[in-house]
UniProtKB/TrEMBL annotation, chain A:
<dbReference type="InterPro" id="IPR013324">
    <property type="entry name" value="RNA_pol_sigma_r3/r4-like"/>
</dbReference>
<protein>
    <submittedName>
        <fullName>RNA polymerase sigma factor</fullName>
    </submittedName>
</protein>
<dbReference type="InterPro" id="IPR013249">
    <property type="entry name" value="RNA_pol_sigma70_r4_t2"/>
</dbReference>
<dbReference type="GO" id="GO:0016987">
    <property type="term" value="F:sigma factor activity"/>
</dbReference>
<comment type="similarity">
    <text>Belongs to the sigma-70 factor family. ECF subfamily.</text>
</comment>
<feature type="domain" description="RNA polymerase sigma factor 70 region 4 type 2">
    <location>
        <begin position="115"/>
        <end position="167"/>
    </location>
</feature>
<dbReference type="Pfam" id="PF04542">
    <property type="entry name" value="Sigma70_r2"/>
</dbReference>
<dbReference type="InterPro" id="IPR013325">
    <property type="entry name" value="RNA_pol_sigma_r2"/>
</dbReference>
<keyword id="KW-0804">Transcription</keyword>
From TrEMBL, chain B:
<protein>
    <submittedName>
        <fullName>Uncharacterized protein</fullName>
    </submittedName>
</protein>
<keyword id="KW-0472">Membrane</keyword>
<keyword id="KW-0812">Transmembrane</keyword>
<keyword id="KW-1133">Transmembrane helix</keyword>
<feature type="transmembrane region" description="Helical">
    <location>
        <begin position="66"/>
        <end position="84"/>
    </location>
</feature>
């Protein structure tokens, strides 16, 4: 079944078509949400909310039959709305102690696989991870992040720098443990 | 807009995560299916911002909202009207209770026919009920003598309970 036919069946409310559409796009879309939400079930709940919007507004979608970019935008917007509603970007759940900066070679970080990247990301507090994800994965500028999260541009810059520091530190800690002699 | 410059490892992370895929479980789809069944036909919720001023209510909406109050108010007004009318009738009835009343066209007729309770002349024929024209209404005491003048009026519809012609 072509994408156009699938979309057409989804618009008519065909549940089998909706399931096929959902299963087809889920693998690419969930990681977009998982960059922001550490808990998988929470990420799936956010994704489902976004997909509901998608199914409700598929009728208005009149593009070239390649809805991936449109879907990613809807998912991103929904995730941002949830972050804003819960004020997660500004909540600090635990005070951070002083962590001395560590030196980690860029090549070591660059060669991580997706699972390890997500683990490191999820070790960050929400208010840092969200800025890091918006900047690195979604390509937003500091001004755009500041606007979306209602923070200052300087705060966005500081949070990105702080997230980088902590990611290096977490990587260093995890690898020190793994490499330590038994 | 100027984009933020990223490090090499950050660029690599973006590529790695873009290739990353996550397979949906049966639970994932069942959650989505439940959402679709419960909310797909509902209208998209409007954004509710507590800082926005409320829109004025339309008059139709106000009427629909407050129609029980309006009905109650009308019933109340009707009740008060009926109560007042009943009170007036009772008041008039009580004033002649136990006594007869005498309608007279004037001093002459009163002198000529003192035993007659009613001395009247119908003047209006096109409405229901007895309508009488008279000059003065008197009370009769137990002995049948004229006691005192009650009303001096011109025309009235005389209700049977007020006639006292027993």
């Amino acid at each position: 079944m072509t994408t156009e036919l699938l979309i057409s069946a989804c618009i008519k409310g065909n549940h089998r078509a909706q399931e096929a559409f959902y299963r087809m796009h889920f693998p690419k879309l969930l990681p977009i949400v998982q960059r922001h939400f550490a808990d998988r079930s929470e990420a799936v709940a956010v994704l489902n909310q976004a997909m509901l919007r998608v199914f409700q507004s598929l009728r208005e979608y009149q593009e070239d039959g390649k809805p991936e970019a449109w879907l990613a935008t809807v998912i991103r917007r929904t995730a941002l709305n949830v972050i804003r509603d819960k004020d997660r970007a500004n909540r600090r759940f635990q005070p951070e102690g002083f962590v001395p900066p560590v030196s980690v070679p860029s090549s070591a970080l660059a060669n991580l696989n997706a699972e390890d990247i997500l683990k490191l990301l999820h070790a960050l507090p929400d208010y840092l991870r969200i800025v890091f994800s918006l900047s690195v994965f979604d390509g937003l500028s500091h001004a755009e992040i500041a606007h979306e999260l209602k923070i200052t541009v300087a705060a966005s810059r500081w949070r990105l720098a702080r997230a980088r520091e902590l990611l290096r530190t977490h990587y260093h800690v995890v690898n020190s443990i793994n490499e330590s002699p038994l | 807009m100027k984009s933020t410059k990223h490090t090499d490892w950050e660029n690599r992370w973006r590529e790695t995560l873009a290739e990353h895929q996550s397979i949906p479980t049966a639970e994932d789809w069942s959650g989505m299916k439940h959402l679709l069944e419960t909310q797909a036909n509902e209208p998209v919720e409007a954004i509710v911002d507590p800082n926005l001023p409320k829109l004025p209510e339309s008059s139709t909406r106000r009427i629909l909202k407050y129609w029980p109050h309006s009905l109650l108010f009308l019933f109340l007004l009707g009740g008060i009207g009926l109560g007042l009318r009943k009170y007036e009738v009772e008041k008039a009835t009580n004033e002649v209770k136990g006594e007869s009343i005498h309608f007279s066209k004037g001093a002459d007729s009163r002198a000529e026919n003192p035993s007659s309770n009613i001395d009247t002349t119908p003047v209006i024929n096109n409405i229901k009920g007895p309508v009488y024209r008279f000059d003065t209404v008197y009370q009769l005491d137990a002995a049948g003598n004229l006691s005192r003048e009650i009303y001096t009026i011109d025309t009235a519809i005389l209700y049977p309970e007020l006639r006292g012609d027993h």
